[in-house]
Amino acid sequence: MLKIAIINGPNLNLLGIREPSVYGSFTLNDIENELLILSKELNIELTCKQTNHEGQIIDWLHYCYANNFDGIILNAGAYTHTSIAIHDAIKAIKIPVIEVHLSNVFAREEFRHKSYISPVSKGQITGFGIESYLLALRAMKDLN
Predict the structure, then answer these.
(1) Which residues lie across from 5 on neighbouring strands?
(2) Can you list the positions of beta strands (E) in the chain?
(3) Contact at 8 Å (CB) between 61 and 96?
(4) pLDDT at 68 > cutoff 80
(5) pLDDT digits (tens, 9 = 90+) for 52-62
């Protein structure tokens, strides 16, 4: 059975109330429930985490490495565009990481067009709402 972590970054705990015109009306709990249903179908052991703190994301990346996770699906939120530290952590652990975003970051503000996560990720899925996560989980299954 594959062990996959879903790591969500800042402000994703506010889904459902945060900019519904951009992110939709679903909550982080809705996303996690859909992922858990799919993970059972795909025979994947899933761990879901969310934090608003950059260092906690790094600690969880390290934890995944130390505990032999097979892959990570990461929505680093705004840290995607600012965090060299998360970039370095992903590069160090050598676990496949798929970067996900609910919205199409390339159709938004210019500062969202740069990702420090993409160069060290296996791939990026952006702009499909909840489906971004489900596509990433299916892709992770295919990678392993």
Answers:
(1) 47, 72
(2) 2-8, 44-50, 71-75, 97-101, 123-126
(3) no
(4) yes
(5) 999 999 999 99
In the chain, the percentage of residues whose pLDDT exceeds 70 is 99
Catalytic residue among 79, 101, 116, 133: 101
**Could you tell me the pTM of the whole model?**
0.94
Identify the residue with better confidence: 142 or 18.
142
* Residue 135 Rama label (left phi>0; alpha psi -120 to 50; beta): alpha
Active site residue 101: yes
Active site residue 53: no
C-beta of residue 80 within 8 angstroms of C-beta of residue 117: yes
- For helices 84-93 and 54-66, the axis angle rounded to 10 degrees is 0
**Distance, C-alpha 43 to centroid of its chain:** 19
Residue range 81-98: mean pLDDT, rounded: 97
Catalytic position from the list 23, 79, 116, 133 = 23
Backbone angles phi, psi at 75, to 5 degrees: -115, 95
pLDDT surpassing 70 at residue 138: yes
Residues 14, 93: Cα–Cα separation, whole Å = 29
